[in-house]
Amino acid sequence: MRLILYGKPDCHLCEGLQEKIEQIRDLNFELEVRDITTQADWFAAYQYEIPVLCRVMTPDPDSEIAPKEEPLPRPSPRASVQQVQQMLQQYFPKNDSQ
Questions:
Q1: Which long-range contacts (CB under 8 A, 24 or more apart) does 68-75 make?
Q2: 81: how many CB neighbours lie within 10 A of its CB?
Q3: Which residue of 18, 56, 59, 69 has the fewest C-beta atoms within 10 A of its own C-beta?
Q4: CB atoms within 10 A of CB 36
Q5: Which residue has better confidence, 60 or 33?
Q6: How far apart are CA 17 and CA 21, in angstroms?
Q7: Average pLDDT score, the chain
Q8: What is the DSSP string of 55-87?
Q9: What is the reported pTM?
């Protein structure tokens, strides 16, 4: 599964969530970090919401439908790495978790 974290430099909430996600070893995912200050549409969409974590929903490979981003609930800044992992586990397809 692919995850996208929207944030900006010097945002302690963004950096904290990124650090926790990067410590998760029991889930199979790719993390892409996007700086909202680099694109106007990202900034307009997320300037008051960061950090925003999305999973990329990939359609059937034979489909012409483009991948879609689905925002996930934001964990508490006080959540532990284990709590963030448990939250993410809910959104993993059963065959992607290992």
A1: 69/4, 74/17, 75/17, 75/20
A2: 14
A3: 59
A4: 23
A5: 33
A6: 6
A7: 90
A8: EEE---TT--PPPEEEE-PPPPTT--HHHHHHH
A9: 0.86
